[in-house]
Amino acid sequence: MLENLSQQPADKILALMAQYKADERPGKIDLGVGVYKNAEGKTPVMRAIKAAERRLVEEQESKSYTGLAGDPAFADAMIELVLGDSVARDRVAAIATPGGTGACRQGFELVRLANPQATVWVSNPTWPNHVSILKFMDMPQKAYRYFDDSTGGIDFDGMLEDLAGAKAGDIVLLHGCCHNPTGANLTLDQIDEVIAVMEGKGLVPMIDIAYQGFGDGLDADAAVTRRVATAFDNVLIAASCSKNFGVYRERTGILMAISKDADEAALSQQNMNYLNRQNYSFPPDHGARCVSMILSDPELRADWQAELEEVRLGMLELRKQLADELRRLTNSDAFDFVAEHRGMFSRLGLSPEQVETLKTDHAIYMVGDSRINIAGLNKDTVPVLARAIAEVIGD
Ligand code: PMP
């Protein structure tokens, strides 16, 4: 049987990680995988998570199953964190999921149950896993224009034009903040225009929010999601705690479905529980329990927010430093967008050949589309990167 298997496409980012690991050159720089790293290149366990884990060890009396939707306190806390008071709580159904990936997958599963004809529209480019999961599920997908490589900004006219070509009931997948892989984000005015087009065409929004707190702050980063949430009867939201709580390996995420009223929400909830049951029964609980403990304890929450803010401001500082260096070295404003982008990523607009040269000649690793992880830098490596970029674009 197993001899019938054929090779599956390799994950490009994971392959890049392996190449980086095997590179023996001193001073090599890893700007590949999307994991936050501090100035020492470490991905530390956040203080509040450590405290919550200690408390859990002391106080948890059972590891019996949770409900199919996960711990209700986790759902309450995350709905409050992401949606604030933008939507009545009884309109929101939610299931805990294994990470944001699980939330996306379950969101797509819910779409397929509710409307198998729906095409899912993803930004060009988007997080590659969106595309590959949809492909794996054999769901119709199309891309809308989003990023303009020549400016490092958004091709907004292209985006609106493409969305206007979607059919009623189609799903528009938006990134809540800190767009991956580009770093370019819609303004609130732009999202209002997108909402108007979507309402006009009867499109349904799905939001993937994986970096809340990494861009402009916790509430500012949720603003697009909340604006969309108030505008539509139905909204799907896939949220990840991997980055903003630093619990990558605990697999902590949540799928929310906003329904038009409480009755519809009960039906959504029942279907979402069913989807959890079919795919893995009970979702992981450890990370979720730590997250809800932090969010509901004022002291832990304040400490978490303070640490997250340090992370956010550190990345902004690196962005500014890199944009300044590039401006100086290239004598142009061509890379000013690096300081405008938000989140962990920026797409630099370099060619695949230039990306390859950065790797072979400078031991600088970035994704083939020239996405860099800002958090892979520190104040000493920013000038190294800037010099290398100036050199390869000067070639
Ligand atoms: N969505 C986006 C846009 C992401 O960048 C990521 C992480 N790379 C995720 C979802 C999911 O992350 P995880 O499954 O690790 O929570």
Automatic annotation (TrEMBL):
Residues 27-389 form the Aminotransferase class I/classII large domain. Its cofactor is pyridoxal 5'-phosphate. GO terms for biological process: L-phenylalanine biosynthetic process from chorismate via phenylpyruvate. It comes from the Bacteria. Keywords: Aminotransferase, Pyridoxal phosphate, Transferase. GO terms for cellular component: cytosol. Homodimer. Belongs to the class-I pyridoxal-phosphate-dependent aminotransferase family. This is Aromatic amino acid aminotransferase. It comes from Salibaculum griseiflavum.
